[in-house]
Design a protein that fits this description.
With 443 residues, the protein is an alpha/beta fold. 47% of the residues lie in helices and 18% in strands.
Length: 443
């Protein structure tokens, strides 16, 4: 491609001579990215495909322009653009040179490279610019693990990473035109919020899905995401040959969310070696489709050898791939709590999240939050806490854990029960899930 042809392709993605549509603002992410960018480090934006990374680049570009930055200093490169297909390191160099020669930024440019994992040896180009402090650099990719491994070859301390998840419930409500700023907003809009919560549980938080009204189209979009993630982010990227077994494993995980899993047991179930199950599981996790939570133990060896609980990055994916929404509300509820805790870990990387079982294996806690050397909070999840047997089981396990870790207070997240009880000198708080998801501080 000539330099003029390159600029013609890039003009569709850039703000040089016009404003571009940037969708509903995800203010929290944009503010953080703005701060990161001006620390003069490589900003690495990761997350599952279609979680909104490309849109965030446009929103960040808008903010920079609003702050008085000359729009000719901005270069957004979409490396999934068909014209750049099968590009290599020289393509990146040619794109950058075309930008410098034709657009002619007068000051240090802002370079946004979208879906960078599509270019082999991209890190050489990025490292060269970073070492010369030639540009403010932001890269995005759908493979968090791969990017972190490749970035490890860069100079220590030269990067900052941020993972983008599908919409939180708070962001989902923002997309629906509902803002929760103070307690009275809960009271005045509780019926609407609960109605939208049910929709969020069923269809999840991928931005395009949220903005689509027809349920049939929502389903089609989610299934297309699922296929793209499997083929483009796993099969092609990792050169997986056994596609059917990979699909069987991904399907197993998405239909068994909030459940403890053992690689050894799965290997017998889908007839794959334990090592292959472990490797495929890592690929599926790297692509952002699922994540695991380990069992808490003071022994690292025991943590590694114990079953892990698996969660989907988005409830809509689980519901579309084969999960029965109406009969699995409890597991979906737990998955939503896990997602909110994952978001908390992104905001504060010092937070660690586990589940816990006592030595007998009879008492279990869904979530244990650790920060530094201290257990900070214990959370139990129960959809129907009004059932006496369910309440007895959940409260007994919670009390056991509070005594074990010398905590005074525990939380049970429920469908709709709210209140507080004191049992055995321990304070038990009941929080409706829809309301707990909107709390700004959860630890």
């Amino acid at each position: 491609m000539t330099k003029s042809e390159i600029i013609e392709v890039l003009s569709h993605w850039n703000f040089w001579n016009r404003d571009l549509e940037a969708g509903k603002l995800r203010k929290e992410y944009v503010e953080k990215l703005f701060q990161f960018l001006h620390l003069d480090k490589i900003v690495c934006l990761t997350g599952i495909r279609r979680s909104g990374k490309s849109t965030l680049l446009r929103q960040l570009a808008q903010k920079l322009i609003q702050q008085g930055i000359d729009r000719n200093r901005l270069l957004i490169v979409n490396l999934e653009e068909p014209a750049f297909e099968n590009g290599d390191l020289s393509l990146l160099q040619n794109i950058y040179q075309a930008f410098l020669e034709i657009i002619k930024p007068k000051e240090k440019p802002y370079l946004f490279l979208d879906e960078i994992q599509n270019i082999e040896k991209w890190e050489k180009f990025v490292r060269s610019l970073q070492e010369k402090k030639e540009a403010y650099i932001l890269i995005t990719g759908s493979s968090s693990k791969l990017l972190s491994q490749e970035l490890a070859s860069l100079l220590t301390g030269r990067r900052l990473s941020l993972e983008i998840l599908p919409l939180t419930f708070s962001e989902f409500l923002h997309f629906q035109g509902i803002e929760i700023k103070e307690e009275k907003d809960f009271l005045l809009q509780s019926l609407r919020i609960k109605r939208f919560f049910r929709e969020y549980m069923e269809w999840g938080g991928f931005p395009e899905v949220v903005l689509t009204k027809e349920e049939e189209f929502k389903r089609r979009i989610l299934l297309s995401y699922y296929e793209d993630i499997l083929t483009r982010d796993i099969v092609v990227r990792f050169r997986v040959k056994n596609l059917e077994k990979l699909k069987s494993l991904a399907y197993f995980y998405l239909t068994n969310i909030s459940s403890p899993i053992s690689f050894r047991k799965i290997s017998r179930f889908i007839k794959l070696s334990v090592e292959t199950v472990r490797r495929f599981s890592s690929h599926i996790e790297t692509a952002g489709l699922i994540f695991f939570i380990k069992r808490f133990s003071f022994s690292v060896k025991e943590q590694e050898n114990s079953p892990r609980k698996v969660y989907s990055v988005d409830p809509g994916l689980s519901n579309c791939v084969g999960f029965r929404f109406s009969s699995n509300l409890g597991r979906l509820m737990e998955n939503l709590v896990a997602l909110r805790l994952r978001k908390q870990q992104i905001e504060d990387p010092s937070v660690e999240v586990y589940y816990w079982k006592d030595t007998t294996g009879k008492k279990e806690i869904d979530f244990l939050l650790k920060k530094g050397t201290h257990i900070k909070r214990i959370l139990q999840v129960a959809w129907n806490i009004e059932d006496p047997q369910t309440k007895e089981r959940e409260v007994t396990s919670l009390i056991k854990a509070l005594e074990k870790f010398n905590l005074k207070e525990g939380i049970i997240i429920t469908e709709d029960k709210e209140g507080e009880e004191k049992i055995k000198e321990k304070r038990i708080s009941f929080h409706p899930l829809w309301k707990w998801l909107l709390e700004k501080q959860i630890i």
